[in-house]
Design brief:
Layout lengths: L20 E3 L2 E2 L10 H5 L4 E2 L2 H14 L4 E4 L8 H18 L4 E5 L8 H9 L2 E9 L3 H6 L12 H10 L3 E8 L8 H12 L4 E5 L7 H8 L3
Parallel strand pairs: 1-4, 4-5, 5-6, 6-7, 7-8
Antiparallel strand pairs: 2-3
Length: 224
């Protein structure tokens, strides 16, 4: 259980030698993206630490060096939205007490853009970067890989990115090429999407069938 984890021995490390620190609040993700193995490895009901544990870890890091940024390595920071809303007031209070010493970053699903309360609290806690698995701007492709959380009704992917930007958060992203729905024009559409989105940093990944992923099972059934 994550709530039994001890505070890491940061006093043994000179954090001045590191670009950023890392902390984990939750493990697991409720979504079932076809290419992803996280739900089967760590569960769909995210396991959690207590907010007090996160504050103790931040205090320990801050006491050890001139920390500039902390990355939440959670599989999906908003996988349990009630838990995120529980943690954020603690982070806001910690930043205020310490004079906002660090920037926070995290990984989160793009539908974060639909939750104004979360966005406002993340802005106040000084979250400056959010990694979002966009994967593809093409709707049919998103449906084919069970990435419905990126299909947000009247809110397009570009609108969602602009919303996150408006709350002071830089969006970085992953893109996957090699999907069954890709055509000869897919690369041009991805490049146009990148240009329109103003995303400053992307990882362009070839599709890979990870062990324990739904994708691997489908390909095996299809004899591929």
């Amino acid at each position: 259980p994550l709530n039994e984890f001890p505070v890491p021995a940061y006093h043994l490390v000179d954090l001045d030698n590191y670009l950023l620190g890392s902390v984990q609040y939750s493990s697991g993700c409720p979504y079932r993206c076809e290419f992803c193995d996280i739900p089967e490895l760590y569960g769909r009901n995210p396991r959690l630490k207590e907010p007090e544990q996160i504050i103790a870890e931040l205090d320990a890091m801050l006491a050890t060096g001139n920390l500039r940024a902390v990355y939440f390595v959670d599989d999906n920071f908003v996988g349990d939205r009630r838990a995120a809303l529980k943690l954020l007031p603690y982070l806001v209070d910690w930043q205020k007490r310490n004079g906002y010493p660090v920037q926070f970053a995290c990984e989160a699903t793009l539908n974060l853009a639909q939750n104004k309360e979360l966005l406002e609290m993340m802005r106040e806690a000084y979250f400056c970067t959010v990694f979002c698995g966009i994967e593809t701007p093409e709707k049919d492709a998103l449906k084919s890989i069970s990435k419905q959380q990126n299909l947000m009704g009247n809110l397009s992917i570009l609108d969602a990115i602009e919303t996150l930007n408006s709350y002071g958060m830089e969006v970085v992203s992953g893109i996957i090429i090699g999907l069954d729905t890709d055509t000869e024009d897919t690369s041009d559409r991805i490049l146009e999407f990148i240009r329109l989105s103003n995303i400053p940093l992307l990882t362009i990944n070839l599709l890979y069938a990870l062990p324990k992923s739904p994708l691997l099972r489908r390909l095996e059934l299809e004899g591929r």
